[in-house]
Amino acid sequence: ILIFTAVISLILGMGLPTTANYIVVSSLMAPVIVELGAANGLIVPLIAVHLFVFYFGIMADVTPPVGLASFAAAAISGADPMRTGFVAFFYSMRTAVLPFLFLFNTQLLMIGLDHPIDVVVVIIISTIAMLIFAAATQGYFFARSKLWESAALLLIAFSLFRPGFWLDMIEPPYENLPATEIVQKAAEMPANTSILLDVEGISLEGDDVAKSVMLPLGPEASGEDRLYNAGLSVRDENGKIFIDDLVFGGPAEKAGLDFDFEITAIKVEASRMPKEVFYIPAFLLLGGIIVLQRRRRRAELALEAA
Known about the structure:
Layout (H helix, E strand, L loop, with lengths): L1 H11 L5 H11 L1 H10 L6 H14 L8 H10 L3 H13 L4 H7 L11 H23 L8 H15 L2 H7 L3 E5 L3 H7 L4 E10 L5 E11 L4 H7 L2 E6 L2 E7 L4 H4 L7 E8 L9 H27 L1
């Protein structure tokens, strides 16, 4: 779905100036990612979704046959416009993987960073990862890379961009609490945080709905009041929790919830080891490749000198 969304955003952005480009792709394609992501348990901040579709919309500026920026550059350089467009498109496609990474690792967008040291670490690691990614796609690091070295550099860059991928394979990111604890959990959560819920039910059109939603709870208050801030009230029927009422225009209604939807679970972040642990094997592998390439480069220089 993300790939299809990227391709459609690329097509929609052709021939449009920047402002109109953003308005078109964000209004047409961003809700698709939000809705389908929620249906598959992927909760992504809206700013990340907008930047994702806007990235590919802007790539249309160099995408033939309507690449306006390519035609402008070709007019300045005196080159063939179509050839310029194809070359620019293939170069820009090398970075097309980056929006997918910040969609799954929102720390790259400075979201969820609470301390200045965290910001510095993310900036440094991201810069190193981008340089490694560029070296891998260009086929040259300290020396011309062999095929396995380029593949290893791509793996290192991926591990630095999204270490949580490996951690999720070992430990699940969330643990499910019974829905009967929703009022108590809403009261216990810190001020101005959100609660993540698994819900299922039948829509007005008769379709089965099962998705995850993130609802803001607002300031500290009782559990019932904070759920009301989120736009809903609940009822307990034989140990099952159902949505009893919705606030018109509230967060719950905007998230697509409806009357009598069942809340099946509360998702809370699991206690896990820090994902930064996976930087260690990535940097060890990087160090090994650097040693091999520098040794090979010295041998090449010595051979040229002889």
